[in-house]
Amino acid sequence: MWLFFGITGLLTAALSGHPSPAPPDQLNTSSAESELWEPGERLPVRLTNGSSSCSGTVEVRLEASWEPACGALWDSRAAEAVCRALGCGGAEAASQLAPPTPELPPPPAAGNTSVAANATLAGAPALLCSGAEWRLCEVVEHACRSDGRRARVTCAENRALRLVDGGGACAGRVEMLEHGEWGSVCDDTWDLEDAHVVCRQLGCGWAVQALPGLHFTPGRGPIHRDQVNCSGAEAYLWDCPGLPGQHYCGHKEDAGAVCSESSVTVKIENKESRELML
After folding, report:
1. DSSP code at position 247
2. Do residues 172 and 215 share a domain?
3. Does residue 150 sit in the same domain as residue 170?
């Protein structure tokens, strides 16, 4: 009778499409294809602690938590696949991030002869790719020794933001790094919502002023954006709608911002001139 119920249960699981659990001694893998990822859906990989969403430490999602990917098994194919999947172009540099201090192995338990074997599966997940496309990648749990080395990548489309010539990091001309070049932003339609995104992204509080051109020294090089139209809720300035600025603006129209964490003096010229001490 018990044999009958056991066979019935296995047949039901097979017909329902739910796989039977893997043996306890087998590595648990999560294929990127199994999530049926489409553009716009949440990827099980992200980059953190970098200058933008296109650089930093590689983290993979395991169920409800994010964990840093093992650096020992990180390679150029995985770096290329991650950058492409995140919409950041190809990989510019893949590296391992060493831990600040060495990790000491746990002391052996008395009478436990399997500690040495288990040490190689200390819990660090890895992203393994057989090619430079995301569909050829899989997340493997407990893939390598947890020695503290973490996978890190800088993508070709890496972007960064800064405020310059304003007397501090939280005030000045707005500049973006795109395609390896620092460039400015045109002041057409530039307002406080746009400046709010800049200040928040830089960790400078909120925007006190959104300034038009010539309040700070004009920049050089490309003008990356024109007619920026942020809602104010975007995480990065490049997430805001806008137009390419190189053919529409000159550097006399470089946009500027002053954030709440700044302590500069800015001269405002409206109907009457005055100085605002922040």
Report:
1. T
2. yes
3. no
Q: In this structure, what token pair is assigned to residue 162?
A: 């800064």
Query: What are the pLDDT digits (tens) for 212-257?
Result: 999 999 999 999 999 999 999 888 898 899 888 777 789 999 999 9
Please tell me the distance from the alpha carbon of residue 278 to that of residue 264, in angstroms, as a whole number.
6
- Report the pLDDT value the prediction gives residue 34, as an integer from 0 to 100: 33
What is the distance between the alpha carbons of residues 6 and 62, in angstroms, rounded to a whole number? 31
Could you tell me the pTM of the whole model? Answer: 0.51
Number of domains in the chain: 2
Amino acid at 9: G
Q: In whole angstroms, what is the distance from residue 243 CA to residue 228 CA?
A: 7
DSSP-assigned letter for residue 128: E
Residues 6+ apart with CB under 8 A from 63: none
Three-state secondary structure call for residue 16? helix
User: Which tokens hold the place of 163?
Assistant: 């405020």
Token output for 235: 């995480």
Strands 181-185 and 171-178 come out as antiparallel
Each of the 278 residues of the chain gets a pLDDT tens digit; together they read 444 444 444 444 444 444 334 343 343 333 333 333 343 346 889 999 887 778 889 999 988 889 999 998 999 999 999 998 888 888 886 666 555 433 333 444 444 443 333 344 457 899 999 999 999 999 998 888 756 788 999 888 778 899 999 999 999 999 998 877 899 999 999 999 999 999 999 999 999 999 999 999 999 999 999 999 999 988 889 889 988 877 778 999 999 999 998 876 555 544 333 333 33
Residue type, 45: V
Determine the Cα–Cα distance for residues 169 and 162; give it in Å rounded to an integer.
Answer: 7
Asked if 159 and 182 touch (Cβ cutoff 8 Å), the reply is: no
Beta bridge partners of 149: none
The domain in which residue 204 lies consists of: 160-266
Do 149 and 164 fall into the same domain?
A: no
